Amino acid sequence: MENRYTQLFKLSERIFTAGSPVIIAAGALLKDNQSGEVLAQLKFKNISNKNIQAIKVAIDAFDISGEQIEGVLEYQYLDLDEYRDAEFGHKSAIRLTENTTRSFYPRILGVYFRDKTSWVPKEDAKWEPINVQQKLEEVLEDNELKKQYEIEAGVKCTYIPLEVAGLWLCTCGAINHVTDASCHICNVELSVLEDKLKDESLEIRKDSRLENENQETRRLIEQAENDRQKRKKKQKRIIAIMIPAIILAVLTLLFTVVIPRVRNEKTIDLIESQITKPLIDTVKNDVFTDYDLVDVTIEYKSKSLQENAFTFTGVVTCTFKEVEQKAYIPFSVTGTVGNTEFNCTFGEGYVE
Description:
- The chain is an alpha+beta fold.
- The chain folds into 4 domains: about 5-130, Immunoglobulin-like, CATH 2.60.40; about 135-200, no CATH class; about 200-270; about 290-350, no CATH class.
- The chain is about 30% helix and about 30% strand.
- The longest helix is centred in the C-terminal third of the chain and has 74 residues, at about 200-275.
């Protein structure tokens, strides 16, 4: 799709006349490809401490040969409230009388402020582009020298300060009036910026700073290495302490938990194997107590006949209670094998 507008001409940037509270920051001549009309667009920048309410401008128009043709005698930007450093006006288009216009020259007729004051240029005022500032790195090609300049100026520096037509342009790019001792953006003083640029000892101080920085770098490297060695020795001491402690803990666990548990499990297996070993004998006494190191066999004569016998070598206590010529059970058997204590109860009912 074809663009609605075609640019026919572009103004130089930052057009200014001495004493003006505004700068014509940019301007362009456009052709409307649908209607064929030619339009002028301007962008202003307020460099005054006062808020701007309105601006009147005139447009001098020229054809393709450079001959002046009918332009715009007056155009007003109204109902504004633009503070310092604000850019405005570029959203409005000025329609030119002659569609053969191929270049133009703007003139500010008056600037009107919110406080009801105004500024009107002299009749012979010339609106000309402000010189482009040089970048600091183009003058101070050594990056370390540029860094030294920034350190002593106390601000980030991008441009060489420039004085022109009652203005001075700061290293940060801000536009100030000659009556401003310091920049209204970064607060650095113009005299400081200029003096540091002329200071022939700036190079000497740069070299001294670099030497100090190199010494500090070496010191930090040595300190880092010393710290690393200290950490390494500390780790070795910790390891030397921890290894015996770990070995002691493992041995303690082995001899107090693991080995006794294995022994107990073996002892229990032995007891269970002895329990299931049958032995033929009959207890006929009413009371059978306190026998050491004996084999005991209990045979039940009741409705719940116990087929398997119990045998155990150790300290045994079996108790019968005589009630109407009958011995009641269960039988309680207690003993100790190794580290294992046990208490076993057998049977239900009674023995005749």
